[in-house]
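Marked as duplicate of an earlier ticket. Keeping the data here for the record.
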Amino acid sequence: MLAGVYQQLVAHAYTSAFKAAPSTSSSTPLGAGAAQASSTQAPVQQQQQQQLHAGGARGGLLSTAEIMVIQTGSSMLAGATSSLITNPLDLIKTRIQVAHRHEGQPATFRSVITEIVAEDGPFGLFRGVLPRMVNAALWGTCMVTVYEFLRRASRKEPDQE
């Protein structure tokens, strides 16, 4: 199912790119060459479009609701993944910023890591990752959803999707 949705999303992007492509003029030699090249590629492009549109349950493009669901899920996954990956570095950075060394030496990256691993084990580097993942997932979802809504609302011809 996910492969079919991806195929439909690619088909939508593919057809949108050709709708927005500028036409070339054959009044100049460069324009004539471009027009000739585009006329020889047209049957191949039509065949590719038909193959891409043939996939999926309905055999057509995705609806706006389906696209919004995909974008929402993708933004949540991206936010959660980025938080999971960057949490150890953020934890170390915060510990370095608030560290008070009695010996007069500033905290180093290595000393903070060894301290965290000694106290809590390797999973100590992921302390606080769940709230950070939820925060990033929700923030990313709101940002992408609002951006896509505004992008669609600001189109000059909204009925061409």
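See parent ticket for discussion. The CA atoms of residues 31 and 153 lie 34 Å apart.
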